[in-house]
Amino acid sequence: MEGRTTARWTRRDPKDRRAAILDSARRVFADRPYDAVNMADVASAAGISRALVNHYFGSKRELYIETLHAVTDAAPNVVRTDLDLPVEEMVARNTDAWLDHVEANVNTSLAIGGVGPFGDDPEAAEMLAQIRDELVDRMVLNHFGSTDIPPTVRLALRAYTGLFEVAARDWLVTGRATRAQVKALLVECLLAIVRQAVPKLAAVDQETKRMVSG
User: pTM to 2 decimals?
Assistant: First the structure.
């Protein structure tokens, strides 16, 4: 015999195997709605047996929730805080990067935002809250240089993330908006919040304090 036949797959460290399955599941769930995916689809994408997928993830729901966690962990880092650009260009660049991320993870991103089978799931809601808070921190750093800001400023930027969720659905789900329209809306609204709404909120805060102390 001139050579030895190689096995179809080699034994891998359990952590590596689990990570590989999760990576395949992320791609599968990103492309198709939850109800259109089964464990065999994930196994096929990972190049392993369905039994092995079930060994690491007991159910489709468990695997899906872990996939959402992976998307959640990666999402905030898409918005960079190290871009040495004029503010308009920085906002446009980060908006494009965020739209790229959502477009590449359509169904999982929308699920975290409340679209899909787990819209009322407390765990999905917690993940959405985590993304919001981390995104707000990054926007605050980009525009104010510190996360030590008045609560009203954080309120305005959290509300801005809600605007994105509605616009993303109109773009990716209903087709009521184009990507270009969503980008323009997000860029201009964020700049308006920082330049116009935040100073007005600060004035409201000062007036409230004056009335309370007076």
Answer: 0.77
